[in-house]
Amino acid sequence: MMAHIQGSYIALPTPFRAGRLDLDRLGSMIERVTELGADGILVAGTTGEVPTLNGYEHRSLLHAAAEANGGRLALMAGVGTNCTNSSVEMARFAATCGVDSLLVVTPYYNCPTRRGLLLHYGQVAGAVDLPVVLYNVPRRTGVDLLPEVVAEIALLHENVAAIKETSRDLERVRELAGTTDLAILCGEDRLLFEYCRAGAVGAVSVVGNLAPRHISGIINSTSSGIDPDMGHELQSELEPLLDALDLDVNPVPLKAALAELGICGGELRAPLAPLDAEQLAELRRVLESSTAIYAAQAEPVESE
Known about the structure:
48% of the residues lie in helices and 14% in strands. The chain has helices at residues 23-35, 55-69, 84-97, 114-127, 138-141, 147-156, 170-179, 192-198, 212-223, 228-245, 252-260, 277-289, 291-297; strands spanning 7-11, 16-17, 20-21, 40-43, 74-78, 101-105, 132-136, 160-165, 183-186, 202-205.
């Protein structure tokens, strides 16, 4: 039986130093989110600038993440590309590293039809025994993985266990919850509270790098129904940070923020470019005044 995928996954950026992977820094980043109570981490996703990694770097990143994690957090590895054969090869490699699940984005640029999507996900899922997480992000890929196709893929492949959905249409989330048994993970940080109310059981979060306890708090208080008012309050506290992370395309503002906090170097790979002076000044203003940033550095409050 596939392990249930749920809770707060932090989408880690890939640290670079002088153009190369900074795997020592990766280890310290994993240590930090472990201490701050994350349930899992994602490496080699969109936030990880995975399209800029060559095959050797991609494999090195997965291997180093698994080694640094040491089985403490649920480790999700991004393996999807717009080439099915390449995705299958990376999925097989990831399975040998000790990761716990595989994130497989829809094939970007190619714009496959329903039959192409069934073929793609079928070959990846059939190549491994690990849980597969579908990843729908049409704003970046140009391909929308519709709920009826999601249901068909899940029916055909038992190890397709979850979907990371980024739609801003909450009716889509409710439809996924009502027509599949997949674990729904929120990929749109602004809507995490509403996603949880609509049936999501977790998130793959970008802002969680800055405020991991807020992400966990929203999921735990809202999905369980224990204290939805708290979930709503925590979501509201994230808004200034979310605005700051929208100053440029992800992960540009995130890496700048983590550099300001001394957590990760801000180095990016082209074609991404650093924030300009005005954007950086606004980011600093938000970081200095954010209650969510303070909460990430404070001792957690024990729940009764």
